[in-house]
Structures are given as C-alpha cells and as structure tokens.
Amino acid sequence: MTALVTGATSGIGQAVALKLAQLGAEVIVHGRDAGRGAATVQQIQEAGGAARFIGATLTDPDEVRRLAAEAGAVDILINNAGIYKFGLSADVDDAFFDDHFNVNVRAPHILVQQLAPGMAERGRGSIVNLSSVVATTPARAGGIYGASKAAVELLTRVWADEFGRAGVRVNAVQAGPTETPGTDALPGLAEALGNLTTLGRPASVTEIANAIVFLASSDASYINGAVLQATGGQAAIAA
C-alpha cells in the first residue's frame, strides 16, 4: 500500500503521514522544503515505517504533474496541502486569488486527474481532500480561501461519482479551528475560534489526522462522496 500525502512536512499532513506509516503504508512525503522532508522521512523510518520525499511547488501545474509522475501508482492520495490568507474582497489582488485556487483547487484536481485513473484500473483506491469549516460558514476576510475549499467539497462529490464504481472512494474532511504551525504564526487565532465551537477549544493536528486516516482506511469502505465535519460542533445562537 502506497500513500501520497501533500504538505506532509508539518502540521496535519505530517501527522497523517506518520499515522499511515504506522498502519503499514509506504508514504510519499510531499513538501517544498527538502530539509523538513528529510526530517519527516527519518521520523517515519525510525519508527519502523517506509517513506520517501518528493519536493514540488504546487503553484506550478507542471510541478504538480511531475509530482504525480514521480509518485507513480498510489493506493491512497491525501490532498492536504493548502494556503490560507486573509483579505477583504475590495483589497485583494489577482495574485491573492490565484494563489488560493492554484494550490487549493487546481493542484488536487491535477493529482486526481493523474492518479485516480490508475486506481480505477486496479479496482481500488482512496482519496481524501482537506476542507475547512469556512467552506460553508462565511468568515470575515476569508472569502477567497472559503470559496476555494467550497470548490474542493463539490469536486469531492463529483470525483466520488466519477470513480466510485471502479472501486475508488473520494471523501473530504472539513476541519475546524486547529492548532498548527500556520495558525501559531497568528497568535490567539485558533484559540479564539475554538472558543466558538461546542467543545470550546481548537483541535490538535492529531485529531484532524485521525479523521483523515479513518476515511482513507478500509474501516470507511462504504463511505464515498462524504464531507466529514471535524469542526468541534456549531454552537447554538443565544436567545
């Protein structure tokens, strides 16, 4: 069993890579930083797992195709890598828009386009896309990011239909506020958003990774086209 995890050198992606390796998958660790990639591979190998690193810049479609080609035949694809920036609609420029849709939408689309047909030929495969609660809940200054994740959720359902009868499942995890290296760069953000959930706290990367790995595994063999909410729950509106 071979798994490709994008954005696997830190945060949620790294936690997913470690868990899949523990379950016996040979993990292809993707990232932009070769040093962090090597460290993640080493961590997996020291725990008795198998892994290799492929570097690629997801803003470049040719790089994404190269990533798919170098990965080869995979059984599991985790489209985890993404970017999130904040800006009001009147203030953002074309590059802001392009960065989000190139990484968050086009890159997963190319990887599915390149890798899912091979899964279908072999009669098995699992794809999990990482979404966000802002795909369905408006976030101030988060319109472009939210729109890119809404697109991912729609594509998840489309791909589930396109490849499901060939034995390939495609699902998504809608993550709520999560403490990651990215949110750590914005002090207090994850904690503040976590306080708005029914659980009153942000998620850890392990909690989101658990949901992703579940959908990728045979334990979820009859789940297809689903968007699993790992959001901490939506708090009731006070009367």
From TrEMBL:
It holds the Pfam family adh_short_C2. InterPro entries: NAD(P)-bd_dom_sf, Sc_DH/Rdtase_CS, SDR_fam. SUPFAM superfamilies: NAD(P)-binding Rossmann-fold domains (SSF51735). It comes from the Bacteria. The keyword Oxidoreductase applies. Gene3D superfamilies: NAD(P)-binding Rossmann-like Domain (3.40.50.720). Keywords: Oxidoreductase. The keyword Cytoplasm does not apply. GO terms for molecular function: oxidoreductase activity. Belongs to the short-chain dehydrogenases/reductases (SDR) family. This is Short-chain dehydrogenase. The lineage of its organism: Bacteria, Bacillati, Actinomycetota, Actinomycetes, Mycobacteriales.
